[in-house]
Design a protein that fits this description.
globular, five-stranded mixed sheet
């Protein structure tokens, strides 16, 4: 399942697993995450795994819209699977729109960050 709830050190995390997904499946996953966050309507921890996934322009367009709709519900966010220039772009994106998604090298580092 592309979107699920996981627990790390006793805390709940909304986990979006994009790994290996194609554009349409990625769009469906981000929309599913949006619906979960909006339905529960409370601040949450969010982890996105983009390993072996390509953020196409179509996905990014949908993702940007979703991000604006749910950013007030993301207590803390982490992203795994982006490196180099993409990581720098994410940090710039966060500055511009006030995003809360921070890049990490490993899933374990990301989870530890989220629950601190």
């Amino acid at each position: 399942m592309a979107v699920s709830k996981i627990f790390h050190k006793g805390k709940e995390i909304v986990y979006i697993y994009y790994r290996g997904l194609q554009e349409q499946a990625m769009i469906e996953a981000v929309k599913k995450a949006e619906s979960i966050l909006l339905l529960e309507n409370k601040p949450q921890l969010v982890l996105a795994n983009l390993s072996n996934a390509f953020a196409t322009p179509g996905f990014m367009e949908v993702n940007n819209t979703v991000s604006k709709n749910i950013k007030h519900l993301i207590e803390k966010g982490a992203v795994v699977g982006i490196t180099g220039a993409k990581s720098i772009l994410l940090k710039g994106y966060n500055l511009i729109i006030g995003g809360k998604m921070n890049p990490f090298s490993t899933e374990e580092e990301a989870k530890d960050y989220l629950v601190k």
